Amino acid sequence: MSHETPTRAVVLGGSLAGLFAARVLADAYDEVLVIDRDVLIGVDVPRRGCPQGRHINGLLTGGQRAIEELYPGITEEMLADGVPKGDLGGTVRWYMQGRQLEQQHADMLCIGPSRPKLELHVRERTQALSNVTFVERTDILGLETTADRSRVTGVRVQHLDSGEAEVVDGDVVVDATGRGSRTPVWLAELGYPQVPEERKKIGLGYVTQYYRLNSDPYHGDLSINVVAHPKLPRGCIFAKTDGGRIEMTTYGILGDHPPTDQAGLYAWIDSLGIPEYSDALRDAVPLTEPVAFRFPTTLRRRYEDMPRFPDGLLVTGDAVSCFNPVYAGGMTMAAKAALVMRSHLHTGAAPQPLEYFKDLARDVLDPHWEMTNVVDLSFPGVEGKRTLSVRMAQAFLKRVQIAATRDGKVTAAYMRAAGQVERPETLQRPGMLLRILVQSLRGPKSRPPHIVTRPVRPAAGQAAEQSAEPAA
C-alpha cells in the first residue's frame, strides 16, 4: 500500500486558459483545483469575469486543432450542438486593403462558436475529469511560499459567500487570471526583479451586436471579414454562430471607435464600403443591444527574460501576453500554451518555470507577436520602432495581400500562416515567393459587389390561401 502524499495543482482562474491548463495538469497530478470569483459550472451566458464574452472571439485553425488535441472529439460535439463550420481560406470572405481576396480551400477547418458556447463545452469536458474540482465564488489574495521565497507552495484565498479565508496548498500554482494578473506585483513583494513588459498603444475600440437575418449575404460562406488598413482604420467581422444567429463585431483603432446607438452603428457599417453588410442589415432583426469594449494597449510580459523565478509557479494565457484581439490569437495562444505546459509536466518531476517560459516564447508567442506587431505598426499613429526589418515585412505583407486578390493559392498559404498552422516564414519559400511577386505586380483585382438574396414572399392573395389551408 502506497503512503505517498497525493499531489495537487492549483489553477488561478477558470478562463479558457485556466481550463486548458487544468486539462494537462490532470494527467500529472492527483488533484487539480480551479479557483475563480465567478460561478462557472453550467453557465452558458457571458460571465462578468470574461468581459469579452459578449463579443466575437475568433478561434483560429491552429487553436481549433490544439483544443481538439486536448479534448479529442470536442469539435464534433460542438458541431452537433449547432456550431457552424467553414474553411479559413475557402468559406471566409476576406477584404484586405479594401479588396476581396480570392477564396480557396486551405484544409483549414474553422468553427464559429460564441465565447459562452465554447467555454461551456470546454468546461464540461474538463469537469468530467475525475480529479478536477472547481472552487467557485472565491477571491485570490496572494501566494504562499517557503521561508526563503524560492518556491511557491500554495495560495491564499477568501470564499466570497462565507467570508472565510484559507490557504490552499499546491505542488504547482498556475496563474490564468488574464491581463489583470497580479503575479508581477506578487513577485516584486517577494523580492524578485521586475517582470520585463512590452506595451504598444493601439487605442482599439469595438462594438458587438447579434442579429437574425432576413436575407443571405453569405451564399455558403461562414463569415465576411473586413480588415482595417491605414487608409481606412476600421474593420468588421460578420459571422454565423450557434443558435442560427449572426454575430457582428466592428472596430476602429487610435480612438476612432464605433458608436453604440443603433442609427450611428449602421452609419458606421456603411462607411466600410461593403454593400453586403449594409444590405443584409437593412431588414435584420437585432437580438441584443450594441455593446462596446475598449482595448487600449497590447501587452507582453517577458517572463522568459527573468534572471530568476520561484519554483512551483507558472503563468499562462492573457496573464503572459495580450495581442491585438482583432487578430483572434488569444484562445489559440492559450490552447498552445497548455500543450507547451504538458511537455514540461514530466512524471515525478516538477516543471522548471524558466524553461517553460522560454519554450512558450520561442514556439508559441514570438511568431504571432512579430507578425501582429508588423501589422499594428503599419498604422502611422501607432507608436513603435519601425526598423528596417519591420518596414521590409510590411512591404512584403502588402504584396501578399495584393497577390491574394488574384491567386487562391496565395490566400490559402497566407491563411495557414495567419491561422497559426504554419509559421509566417513559409510564405517566403521560393515557389510561393515567385507566385506572390508575379501576381502582386499585376495589381489588385477588382470584383463586382456581392448580391444579397432574400426569400421570395408570396403575394397577399397567395398568403391568405396558404394560411387558410388546414394543418397537416
Automatic annotation (TrEMBL):
<protein>
    <submittedName>
        <fullName>2-polyprenyl-6-methoxyphenol hydroxylase-like FAD-dependent oxidoreductase</fullName>
    </submittedName>
</protein>
<dbReference type="InterPro" id="IPR036188">
    <property type="entry name" value="FAD/NAD-bd_sf"/>
</dbReference>
<feature type="region of interest" description="Disordered">
    <location>
        <begin position="443"/>
        <end position="472"/>
    </location>
</feature>
